[in-house]
Design a protein that fits this description.
This protein is α/β, with parallel strands linked by helices and 247 residues long. It is built from nine helices and eleven strands. The longest helix has 15 residues. It starts with 8 loop residues before the first helix and ends in a 5-residue tail after the last strand.
Amino acid sequence: MTVKATGGVRWHMRALMQRTRWYATNALLADWLAQTQPVSSELLLVGASAGWMMSGPWLQRFKKITVIDLDPIAPCLFRLNHGRALKRSGTQLAFLRGDALADLPQLLRGYPQASVFFDNVLGQHRFRMDDTDQAEAELNGMAERLHGRDWGSVHDLFSGPVTPAFKGSEPVAIPAEIEATGLIANGLSDARLQQWLLSRVGASGPWIDHLTLGVFPPNTRSCLISWDFLPGYKHWLQAGWVAPGSS
């Protein structure tokens, strides 16, 4: 089975060029992260790349952070974005180059006390694999693989083109436990939920399903955040945290 790398120079250039456009979404993510309650002072940060969408104040809560990414230039750029703040907080920062999703069992054994956070990486898994059925099965099995651990993730649910002039297209955060036009969104399993979310951002044309609807255990409290990725193109992100013993 072929596994393809994501990210790289193109991603970093895009993130740099779109940084102002992403500001509102990043602020919503920071607000959500501020409300999470990791149980450990050690963090295993998976797929953070340069940390373009990470919250500095949240990272400063930890005494030790180990970042795992395949991108060889990620450590340098991550330090540029967050190194100074982490130095002020006395946070120990380490980097491992590797495929954290493939090596997850070994990483969990190697860092038994660490909280785990997947930073905008699980939504890319379907593009890393030749077999989308296998990719979806692996994503649906994440909760079982992480059973008993303290972990969270922010990942793409859907992405696609939007009508640029659509009113109400500013980034918005929606608690996933709310009732939306008769839909209880806890399980995120109903196709009508996708239709409702797309209507909130003025979707036009076909959207991509990132196959992440089953990442979290049922009834996980999460937040749905729209992301103005590029002019005329948006994503819906899901952010959630799973306490030990609830998965």
